[in-house]
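Subject: for your reference before the review

Hello V.,

The reviewers asked for a structural picture of the protein, and I figured it would be easier to keep everything in one thread rather than splitting it across files. Below is the amino acid sequence we used in the manuscript, unchanged from the supplementary table.
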Amino acid sequence: MDNNTYVTPLSGRYASKEMNELWSNDRKYSTWRKLWVALAETEKELGIDITDEQINQMRENINNIDYDVVAKRESECRHDVMAHVYEFGTKAPLAKPIIHLGATSCFVTDNTDVILMTEGLRLIKKKLVLVIHNLKEFALKNKDVVCLGYTHFQPAQLTTVGKRATLWMQDLLEDLEELEFVESHMKLLGCKGTTGTQESFMKLFKDEEKVKQIDSKIAEKMGFEKVYPVSRTNLY
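And here is what came back from the structure prediction:
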């Protein structure tokens, strides 16, 4: 299996190389590891006994993933996140006791979804801006090229090819505005866990004020300004 490319029946036909790489296993699971590094850094800053050596060993192995080891472990424990925690521990043995400390599976799975969706929006935005620019150049080049306009699929008054192109641009500009709105409102889940209580961190820190700082610190490390104030996932 190729782990650096996202594979679906449609990806080979329609998705760009960049989008396939964005949703690949490599990007997904390396993002899990970046979140674990951010968690360890945050816990160290807030007083948990974690060393720089442990964090550095984790950071050095963010992209060093042995999928065969992961698959074997997952067949034994029946849990994808714990299989990756185990494999990460084989690469960063000093950090093995503190990888994923206090977190639930949703810390890596849900936050990674948000991160990748945000990166996907930015990739689409970049391509959309380029299309709008090219249409602008096309419209200016053809502003005096006369063509027949249509209304209700019936011939109407004359217009120009350039003017017709500005109509397409307007639609795309509205798409860009909507995309930028969504992008500006993306928030990280933080460390609130499956039921959103942070109880595990209360047990770990025994200090409510420190627990309140975890979300914002991790969000900043992962490039986000905001987190959801309340959250829950996988409730049945």
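For the response letter, the relevant points are probably these. The radius of gyration is 24 Å. Residues 104-197+225-236 form a domain with the Fumarase C; Chain A, domain 2 fold (CATH 1.20.200.10).

Happy to draft the paragraph if you're swamped.

O.
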